[in-house]
Design brief:
It is a single chain. The protein is α/β, with parallel strands linked by helices. The chain is built from 19 helices and 11 strands. It folds into 3 domains: about 190 residues, 3-Layer(aba) Sandwich (Rossmann fold), CATH 3.40.50.150; about 150 residues, no CATH class; about 90 residues. Helix 1 packs across helix 2, helix 4 runs antiparallel to helix 6 and helix 4 runs antiparallel to helix 9. The C terminus is likely disordered.
Length: about 525
Amino acid sequence: MVRYPITTPVHPKKQSVRRHFGAHPYFTRRPWNVVQSYIKHFAPGKDDVVLDPFGGSGVTAIEAVVLGRRAIHVDINPLANFICQQIAIAPVDINALRREFTAIEEACRAYIERLYALSDEALEQEPLEAWYPHGLALPKNADARAVEELFTRRQLLALSRLYQQIGGITDTVPRDLLRFAFSATLNKCNLTYSTTKGRSAGRGNSGIMHTYRYWIPKEPVELNVWNEFSRKFKNLVAVKQETNQAIGENYQRLKVIHTSATELTKVMNRESVNYIFTDPPYGSHIAYLDLSTMWNAWLGFDVSAQDKQVEVIEGGDLEKSLDDYARLLRDSLREMHQVLQWDGWLSIVFAHKDLAYWNVLIEAAQDAGLEYANTVVQASFQFSRHKRANPLSVLSGELILNFQKKSQPRRIRFERGNGNESETLARQVKELVSLREEGLTIEDLRNQLIPRLLERGLLSALQKTRLTELDELLRDDFYFDDTTARWYLSKTAAAHGRKTLALMQSKGQLALDLTR
């Protein structure tokens, strides 16, 4: 039985495994070794069951099976489930996979390359005979009305022929793996794809991934479909070589379920899960189902109206409110409580600068019967896509909150405060800054303030405070040093702090600084 939570950050490793990087794009991914560390700690038994009810691309479930645990991956998005399953499937006959690719190459490569030698006028005369998705509406905020409008005629001709050939493979394993490589290809072979000046044409990204909507730039870049598919196949082979070794027969320990986190007890037994590690949506930052429309359409995955109703987000095409998000998150946490074993642990990754969202999360967890244990300020090796798309509202790094299911959970009592939010906040900041001679960056302060306010019962008292405005609130009472970009109690403290900071940097003691 695990008695204590993790209390210190895990140093995140860079992109040192192929299974999560370069195989297929998705909107968010946690550092794989951080997830592994949490699974090892909270689910130490080889037969322990690890659940991620907001599974995404499958980092939690995949790392659980790599460690030999039993894993359950749940997501409402068919694309997410497909990505997880194809990354994890093992063992795979690499030679058989290569033979199927060679057959596809013989059937498609010359045709696709010929398309890139044709003029626009000649392309119009080319018959578009193979199936492609058409008539499927894109989200309301898209720069196109339907999925087929995201592609040039050349792209539609190439992609439809390629997908038709893949669909003719009789063996389901290589067929789905090649569909996976095709799906990964779509990210760069559509009209939302662009690159910045000075970079090579292939080193860009789709507007879908970096603006979180179907944004079509004025000067989209058209890459050769065959070349991109070929690159994605090479990446896939590297992934399968890795997972054949890392997962092997453990793949049988993975269960992938298409459902909502609000309906867990419909698909699994109560008290059947030992540990939950999950990264729920941060309010309105990413409308996953809306943004996955292109991929789900090509792959033939149906997304029902009911799926969108139970998706735990704010905004999106259904224009869900914060109250809707709170209700759905509350329902999800209640379901997590139901399927978790007594004394089992739940770790939630969350990052938002609006304290109202933290109130939603903590109150929902406590209402579900979960006891808050602690928060770990966890560094990340790179800005998440959440952070890049929402720099003013998403924290740098990650906060990981640990909860435990107990028969008599203690509840944090939130104070209403004395009505002066500025004074309350200044008092907490002063205590934090006084503890760090080297000073604190604005991101350090934001990350450390949230667990401090939470554990002192002050979240409700300050729920109207937006941490995006924190620097403005600090200027009257604290000193900001331009040299170090850090806050101190005074100008005198800053002079001393610079020396302390230089000493710590020389000793490598700031490796986990969230702002680096």
